């Protein structure tokens, strides 16, 4: 079965023509959702993918990511957890393409991690369905890493951390990261993981203190400035993992969805907790998840 | 006794002519340490305070704040905790003014909150000595709030939190704060304090998750956007207080050094822990602390 996909995020547009789980053709541009006004999305899609629409007049069309947000093409309301392929395929939101043909936006997911609290995702639900994990814990480690608990093939609940964005804030805009120097000494990552242990359990000293303390170690000449950037990365990653494990328990293994460099950091940090990791490539999981939703949609 | 003071921080220069604890005259400018190059500090000081030097040829001259940092006039090495008036007055660092006259930079303090960890202050040590608190816990609540434990009239140890800077980062540079709208609804502060409770103890979910969740509550329309900014303030302040109380124990009362608006937030947050507060004005504490160091220096 052939189908057409737009993986349409905040900063990038990526189009794929797919047969089963093989990419036959692809396009990409910087026409992300944040670069567009209401009313422009259809034209962008037709310009980028119109030739596939003509060549494959029966192919289903799926759109995934921030294209379904309030700032996107059409707002696709969040589906609620628990949600699996059936719930997600049942909540697809149609958009008009041309000549009466429709595409379908994959809804994001909402969950209530505590009474009155909220968490959301858009796009990761599709990657997660493509991992093949039916029961277990998945970490999708992008700018806003998400820890996702699978039960019986459905997304039971999840928690998002702003780890990657926080690292960028500290490096680019904060006096905490200002003393950091190049070349970086990667040993800082483990020192940051050590520091994160001081924020565990009943005697937790607070992440906001540990961040200030990192800077203080450099300005008081207790830590070399080349260690600071990896130290901040380790501290934030360690605090994220501590929080995720206390929310979701301590499994014997975790599935990590991340590019190799970032995945290695999580594998290493989880090893310190005695937890094994299986790393999966996000792009492959995305295609597999899309194929699963297309099949479900065709069946449903 | 008359003395001359420069309270010289990162962004402001403030000069005072003081008799005992009364300010007789004052000047201020935006010639903070970050606006100056090495070698400019003496000229700025003489231009701002030179007439007092002439009028009071015997008056001691004290300089306090970031003027003693690596980027300041002369680096005044950090004194180590525990430190009281005697230790601080004994570690003053002289600078040449004119005609053989000297001023003295008050050193900052260093402490080791855990083996290998570090924390530093420059300026708050002087405020703290001006509170008159001999035994107890003080919170100096500026951009980087510091919690300071006093024992027998000396600063025993302290911990700094980047709370205020973090709030500014989230509001100005992060997608977490972007959905916040005006007018602000101050009820959000208490909701943020509630959320901070979810990061206490063995089941702490992690501050980086709670921050993302605040945004998710707004984009999923579970929370009004006018609540978000006070919510973030409450979450950060609550997490700071939780960390500080777990580091320093839970006293029956805390002395707060802060301007009225900010002090009110701390008083309220501490009340929820059953802790009373006594609020002191930072400016008055600074003058009292300087007078104490001058007297000690004259004696020593």
Automatic annotation (TrEMBL), chains A, B:
Pfam families: DGOK
UniProt cross-references to InterPro entries, sorted A to Z: DGOK (IPR007729), DGOK_C (IPR042257), DGOK_N (IPR042258)
Entry-linked Gene3D superfamilies: 2-keto-3-deoxy-galactonokinase, C-terminal domain, 2-keto-3-deoxy-galactonokinase, substrate binding domain
Any one Gene Ontology molecular-function term assigned to this protein's record: 2-dehydro-3-deoxygalactonokinase activity
Coiled coil: none
One of the GO biological process terms: D-galactonate catabolic process
Listed name of the protein: 2-dehydro-3-deoxygalactonokinase
Organism, as annotated: Microvirga aerilata
